[in-house]
Amino acid sequence: xxxxxxxxxxxxxxMTILFAVFMTVAPxxxxxxxxxxxxxxxxxxxxxxxxFAESGILFYNPCDNQYVCSPGAYLDGPVxxxxxxxxxxxxxxxxxxxxxxxxAGVMGNMEHESHFNPAQHEVSMMNKYQPxxxxxxxxxxxxxxxxxxxxxxxxxxxxxxxxxxxxxxVNFFNDYQKYSPTYSNxxxxxxxxxxxxxxxxxxLELQYLKDELNNNSSYSGILxxxxxxxxxxxxxxxxxxxxNPTIDKHMDRVTSAENFYNKYSGSISGGSxxxxxxxxxxYVVAYAWPTYMKSEGRNFTERMPMYxxxxxxxxxxxxxxxxxxxxxxxxxCGGFVTTVMQESGFDPEYNGCRSNTGPQEYWLREGGGSANxxxxxxxxxxxxxxxxxxxxxxxxxxxxxxxxxxxEHTFMFIGDGLGFETNVAxxxxxxxxxxxxxxxxxxRESVSGARWYRKVR
Length: 457
Hints:
The chain is α+β, with helices and mostly antiparallel strands. The protein is built from 15 helices and twelve strands.
């Protein structure tokens, strides 16, 4: 559990007394490395977070826990291996940085490549080139090795990564006659090499895979998949790339992936990756300042570190982040709501128009999102906080009724359970000649008078 420290104000006999309250929330679900914030004695320094720590105001403390999990989250440190069987251990390792659907897709492919033997050689190539083939050379040769049968230069990269971490482990690669005499499985490797060797080798190979997904844009698309089928297909066609790399030739991998998902999802996990409502709450806490932030100038553009990272990554991936103020991207109401909805998995398809607030509302009411979202006050009545729940989205201004530009403002209801100053979270952007805006934070919008929408399926 990720810890948060904050002070709560209580008014007694006209006096404001501050007392410490300790609270835990589920692990924050976002891509984030604690090294992005300078930490000292468990506190961030040199930012608004530092002032929060000094003043006792609620904040998500990235220095308190370096390892967090999410759909597509890249954790610092080694991949954790746990469980009592070969499959359980690999599942636990993968779900430390992938969603259950994505992990199942990888395992469906992995089973048909190596049968979970981390020292598996590609048998046809082994019979052709061994003995005498140098695994850490010959980058022009498609010789598969390891859990996902890394080949060409990727084989050399994985081999050297393992060697640099623990040189003794490459002996399991080199002694192919003992650990990969033919196609064998993970249980056979454990019987020959021992459970400790299996755990170490699997952990390093999964770490190498995680780094590949993080650093190679050709592979990172798997992090956007939300179904077992799509994850299996993407991994097959873009990462694994076996002979005839099209999914219709390898439907047995989809069947295997679905079996792994049904067997392990919800029971064994290496992290807390999820796409449920709690996940949305975690993202709000990580992305938005918990108080209404004031600035000496007209703009407040300092973003929460995890939101800043997400926006930066989304810009590279050509995803919608909204307006830019003073050179800082993501300072935008629709950009914030879109980012938190998509990144949390609450609605990965949110804002199908890829545009600002008017088109976002159109998408919810009449466009691609209308089957999953309900207009709560379509009869024109004003809503109040008691009628709303975390994740409800509001719009103000004139309804544009199209997927083209327009609209005024959007924000989201977060309720009273997250420790925020108010029950809504928002950002703002004014794209006039004198551009202004504020980063995501606890908002001051009134719930009354807005048009409210709720995700119902």
